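Hi, here's the filled form for the chain we discussed.

Project: internal
Contact: R.S.
Residues: 376
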Amino acid sequence: MPTPRVIEISSPSALERGLQHGSAAADLIARSIAYYREAFAYQAGLNWEEAQAHAAGWQELIAQEYPEIHEEMVGIARGADVALSEIVALNCRGEIMYDNWFVRAGTADPRREEIDGCTSFSLSDEATGDQHVYAGQNWDWRHAVRDTVVVLRIEQPPKPTLVMQVEAGQVGRHGANSEGIALNANGLGGRFEDVIGVPQTVIRRTVLDAANIADALKVLVRTQAHIASNALLTHRSGFSIDIETTPGGHGWEYAVDGVLVHGNHYEAFVPPQLAAHHRPMSPDSLLRVPQARKGLRRAANPEKSVDVRTAIHTAMADHLGFPDSLCAHPDERLPEIDQWSTTLSSCVDLSTGDYYLAYGPPCETPYELIPFNLYS
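And the returned structure, exactly as it came back:
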């Protein structure tokens, strides 16, 4: 299986960082636009021009409230030779789909939701035999976009250096920074008020731009998001917290015996806006989360780091409920555009800065060390 493209970006200028990203990933950005052109039409009832128009409110919000991130998007668009509105649409793809899902569904029933995936984890203290701190996730998303994923290393003085996995053209998703902060994230679903909030790619990038864990928490707690999303924060000190963020209230929980796992259902609370008719967006999340917890507890037994990583990899390759398992595979019963799989599995050792990725479902590929350390 081919490995994701690794792109190294370095500049204090947001525009220059975007230009480097856009030019290095221009072909993948074009491929991503082609996919979402089809996906928005199929799942949201929007052609590509309508999708860009729908994203115009977010473009204005980002320009006003996050000017540096907006400038980076401008650079990505120029580097890839596409319109800025197209890059904004790629960065708001989740928000666009959620806002317009009911158009395709043909119903206003709040229980009718789009399926989502991802299983995040954090391990520390007595949960790891080598006493290191680990964080990562199985990133489950559309099988058709797996070849558009890139690994970014961004030097952006004076802000922390970032290592992220994103779809080409996006400014943020999940990863870690040189201050020892890791962010892993999961969709949660639910229909909220039609108020323009901040897109998830922008929130997640802002979290990873934080110089310390307190600043990262402030971003998650104080930012008015557009859609609900789960954020699992891990610090190299061993501190971890999971925050279920919504356009309304938030819920949170801490690790138990050094283990913290989250999927795609509300665990800390159920937002009052959803309580009357709440059902988990991803039924398989109810299966994946306990399977991950059970498997990851085995990382407490080995003393060598290589064996701890093997235990983590084995846990994240679990197939109970296949194909909608922790290690997800395309469901051949569905149309190709609706098929999901684990895009990649990540595992960062926050104690050493070593960052490992298994590209595609982890049952098929081992964790491999990426070519740079988080702290170097």
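Let me know if anything looks off before we file it.
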